[in-house]
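Sanity check. The docking grid for adenosine-5'-diphosphate depends on where the pocket ends up, so I'm generating a full predicted complex first rather than guessing from homology. Inputs follow.
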Amino acid sequence: MKVLSVASEVFPLIKTGGLADVAGALPIALAPLGIDMRTLLPGYTSVLAKLGTTRIVCEIPDLLGQPATLLFAEHAGLPLYVIDCPEFYDRDGGPYVDTDGKDYIDNWQRFAALSRVASDLANGIDPDWAPDIVHGHDWQAGLAPVYLKYSEVGPHTPSVLTIHNIAFQGQFSAQIFPALDLPLAAYTVDGVEYYSNIGYLKGGLRTAWALTTVSPTYAEEILEPQFGMGLEGLIGERVADLVGIVNGIDDDVWNPETDKHIAATYNGVSLKRRRENRLALIHRFGLIANDGPIFCVVSRLTWQKGIDLIIEAADEIVAHGGKLAVLGSGDPVLEEGMLAAAARHPGSIGVVFGYDEPLSHLMQAGSDVILIPSRFEPCGLTQLYGLRYGCVPVVGKTGGLADTIIDANGAALTAKVATGIQFSPIDRHGLSQALRRTFRLFEDDAAWNALQKAAMKSDVSWQTSASQYANLYKTLINRVAVP
Ligand code: ADP
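Predicted complex below; grid placement will be based on this.
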């Protein structure tokens, strides 16, 4: 079975968050199940620079008004289609924002182009390979099912759209519609029209054959206004076609036994080797070494991630003898709040702003706790890395965090199956209680050890989830076969 994955970021080529990890790992997990997954992504400047040998698949003289070349390449075991279109993708900034952090004003065009090429591939622009299924990720690929649905070429290829975060919807003015090269029928409630504007995610949710999101709990949460962000009604209408499949992790990239980014590789809960990583981390963050727990944060610094709650709890963490190491960037107000907390507690709180993949590994290997008080979390990956590395996750009880962590309540501790601490409600008070529980457990060496061991034994691989995706694809193919 041939599946085209359509993603705006793919690890290890380009990454701003969890989507890249998933897009990079899923094809590799699906290969043993007989699924030939290729990935289509934009040819950002940095991506083209990293590709080795490429093959020209075809020239596209008019990709929404611009000339483009579709390339094929293999990189890190991933077969890739890359759209080389300098007008859209040759930029100095990130994949979505310029060097000042502002959204590119032509994002609507840049990601419509991505979806358009996905549909063209399904319709045969590569004479050697055409997908049986098109699987798009997030709003950036939201128009792929729309282009497929309104394509004049038939039969229409089945499509899947995965929601990694419904907070990002890709909404644009209706004025762009003529430039999207879609028939007028697409500008309706059954297509891209969304409150007199155009919604890319909305259009995808309306037209994809199947919808998935990245955890069963989030699949239920987005039916509620609090989490659905305005799309809960539409998702409710499509609930029969929606499934939550939890993400796995790439266990080659995230393997404490072979990780080249950490100070000392270790096997199982090797406390001694973890201690070496702890020391390296203490050094890197300018912390004073003592025996208290080190809490780490590896995150976008945003309201969603509950970073304001951590800032409010910072004094409390230090008062209990804990340390805080923060790696991330985001909201300037939250960055300032973190800096102020670090200034109040030199040697106890350390902050590194920016994106640092190697350091993110050392943090999992050297900290005692990964703190994730997200207000909503479709799946979350850092808690999964924490499990693998014996860095105990302390998490808000929501979305994928609720699905992947077993709370250290009395029964779970007795049965030695607890893998972390969950708290609810996700507010200042809830976090405070969770911190108190964490400190108590940390003081009890045997209990803490058992927690780490159970965490490290958790199945965080892609295996189960990959077979769920494979089954979904099969169901759709069967639907095509049955007229
Ligand atoms: P989201 O996709 O919502 O940002 P996830 O937890 O799903 O959150 O994925 C975040 C990914 O990005 C993880 O792989 C995490 O390790 C990584 N990450 C986040 N911030 C940083 C950072 N500042 N430096 C390095 N890696 C980071």
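Relevant for the grid: The chain has two domains: 2-248+463-481, 274-456.
Also worth noting: The longest strand covers residues 66-75.
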